[in-house]
Amino acid sequence: MNESAVKKMQKNSSIDYTKVVHSSSFKELMHKKKKFIIPMSIFFMVFYFALPILTAYSTVLNQPAFASISWAWVFAFAQFIMTVTLCMIYTRKAREFDEIVEKVSKETRR
Q1: 26 Cβ contact partners less than 8 Å away, ≥ 6 residues apart
Q2: Residues linked to residue 69 through DSSP beta bridges, in sequence order
Q3: pLDDT digit of tens for each residue in the chain (110 aa)?
Q4: Considering Cα of 70, then 75, then 81, then 84, what sign does the dihedral take?
Q5: pTM score, two decimals?
Q6: Which residues of 34-72 are buried (b: 16+ CB within 10 A; e: fewer)?
Q7: What is the DSSP string of the chain?
Q8: Residue 70 pairs with which residues in a beta bridge?
Q9: Dihedral angle sign, alpha carbons of residues 38, 39, 44, 45
Q10: Tell me, what's the pLDDT at 10?
Q11: In a 10 Å sphere around its CB, with 0-12 CB exposed, 13-18 middle and 19+ buried, how is residue 93 labelled?
């Protein structure tokens, strides 16, 4: 999209994005999202990549956990549980983010 088309869209839009970016509610939203998403992403990546790294470079997960089921299988199953759990946590947290978005919207349309 060229620059004139962007300016035309901004004129037709009722939202002043400069005002949005400088609003305290938007800054609060970005701070809260960063505070939540970065640690969760780091946790997910470490947990996710731990399985292939541990199975490729060590024998720690080869030990039996229950009967003939090794810790590698337990860890792999735990990744499914972790993924669903993180999705549920994010869905709940997104409600709080949506409330802040509504606050930003009300502040910037005045």
Answers
A1: 20, 104
A2: 66
A3: 567 655 655 555 567 788 888 888 889 999 999 999 999 999 999 999 999 999 999 999 999 888 899 999 999 999 999 999 999 999 999 999 999 998 888 887 76
A4: negative
A5: 0.72
A6: eebeeeeeeeeeeeeeeeeebbeeeeebeeeeeeeebbb
A7: --HHHHHHHHHHSS--HHHHHHSHHHHHHHHHHHHHHHHHHHHHHHHHHHHHHHHHH-SGGGSEEETTEEHHHHHHHHHHHHHHHHHHHHHHHHHHHHHHHHHHHHHHT-
A8: 64
A9: positive
A10: 54
A11: middle
Question: What is the C-alpha R_g of the chain?
Answer: 22
Closest CA to 98 of 12, 49, 16, 29: 29
Please give the Cα distance from 55 to 75 (Å, whole number): 10
